Sequence to fold (300 residues):
Amino acid sequence: MQSGVNCGGAVNKYSFVLHGGTVTDPNHVTAAQLDLIRTVVTEARVELASGVSALDSVVSAIVKLEDSGLLDAGKGSFLNAAGFVENDASLMQGNTGNAGAVAAMPRLRNPIEAARIAMERTPHVFFVGKTGEETLVGLGAEEIDDPSSYFMPTEFSEDAPPNEGTVGAVALDQHGNLAAGTSTGGRGGQLPGRVGDSPIIGAGTFANDSFALSATGDGEAFIRRCAAKDIAARAAYCDMSLQGAADHVIHHLIRDVDKTTGAIIAIGHDGEIVLSSNVYGVRHGYTTESGNITVGVQVT
Fold:
């Protein structure tokens, strides 16, 4: 394993960012959510400093968010219009281009781990519904025996939009590799079978050898825009900075043209951290090899 210190004595670069969904009003954020984010980012920093891969750190972080019951992912997932959970998640490894995704799955404990199983233990990328879930459970994904007693839909406030709380993470490890992942219970009250952008590679999640991105917000707009891939392409080919590309898609295209809401987190191959939100903000936390940890909501 590559050491965290190079021959010149300097610490190799690493960066980590996570999000816990868009925020239209600061009153929709709880202290418990921010404490959770700080804890998860702190643990990710320790992992990356020890040489853990970007992929492992992303999966580890999202599992903790899914298990918390504090956000719209895993245990805290919103219910659809029929009164049950349908979970979505996706994962992408930048240096290999490998990806895995799951959608509309009602009994998974950790959808992001199922996405990893899809990526690493099958020749396929995307599994959906009960039959896809059965396949992945057979390959090692953990199934909930009684979903009605396990899932505890999070409630931010009575006036909070029904799409706040999707989670995601992106990381750059000391080997220079990038990874991204996203997990959600979808929109509260969505029609059964509806799938948003979170499990769709290029829409809600994307990573290559230059950028890693995870989105949250109005999934339909992010699907139509192929938003995460569009940002990466603009930064690669249009002489735009990663921040400039993210702001163009999030603020101009999704807010001004599509008249809807969303946010993105991203990391560049040089360790640059980018956040862009066209509403009040996004629950977020990030860290780098400097050791500093930032946790917040508002994105200016």
Remarks:
- The longest strand covers residues 15-23.
- Residues 210 and 269 are 5 Å apart (CA to CA).
- The chain has one domain: 15-298.
- Confidence is low (pLDDT under 50) at residues 1-9.
